[in-house]
From TrEMBL:
One Gene Ontology molecular-function label: DNA binding
Source lineage: Bacteria, Pseudomonadati, Pseudomonadota, Alphaproteobacteria, Hyphomicrobiales
Pfam families (UniProt xref): HTH_3
Residue span of region Disordered: 119-146
CDD domains: HTH_XRE
Database matches in InterPro entries: Cro/C1-type_HTH, Lambda_DNA-bd_dom_sf
Occurrences of domain HTH cro/C1-type (ranges): 33-86
Protein name according to UniProt: XRE family transcriptional regulator
Length: 146
């Protein structure tokens, strides 16, 4: 009975394995070309025109295919970044640059500024832009202690 049940379940298990494998391949994207395009306000057609590649090539890149080394260099030049930056999300990039090549003293100052700007005990209500936290409070509006 065990063998018959296992044999009957194999097609279902095999189909599930295909789905999991496909999802794993999708999650294994190794570059951020599409995000860099969006970050620079470009569309696939812009890459086709600027790099002289065909539409199908750009489509494959947007689906996760890895460009050739020459195309990686060309993309980096177009986006005005180093080739290695194509493998990092564009929003991660500014943060790493901000902290790169700083002295210990500069890093400490930056940390102190961030701590002052974003205290650990933040107010429970966000402060509205253009208003101060004390605005609108008067002695009459506060409950009396008596």
């Amino acid at each position: 009975m065990g063998l018959t049940t296992s044999a009957a379940m194999f097609p279902m298990v095999h189909a599930m394995a295909k789905v999991v494998t496909a999802q794993a391949k999708e999650a294994k994207r190794i570059h951020y070309i599409q995000e860099w395009m969006e970050h620079r306000g470009m569309r696939p057609a812009d890459l086709v025109r600027e790099l002289g590649v065909n539409k199908g090539t750009v489509s494959k890149w947007c689906k996760g295919d890895l460009p050739t080394e020459d195309n990686v260099r060309a993309l980096a030049g177009l986006f005005e970044i180093e080739p290695v930056e194509l493998f990092r999300h564009p929003l991660d990039d500014w943060m790493s640059r901000m902290f790169m090549n700083r002295s210990t003293e500069q890093l400490k100052t930056m940390v102190n500024i961030l701590k002052a700007a974003f205290p650990e005990e933040a107010p429970s209500q966000p402060i509205q832009r253009g208003s101060s936290p004390a605005k609108g409070k008067s002695k009459r509006s506060q409950p009396s202690s008596a």
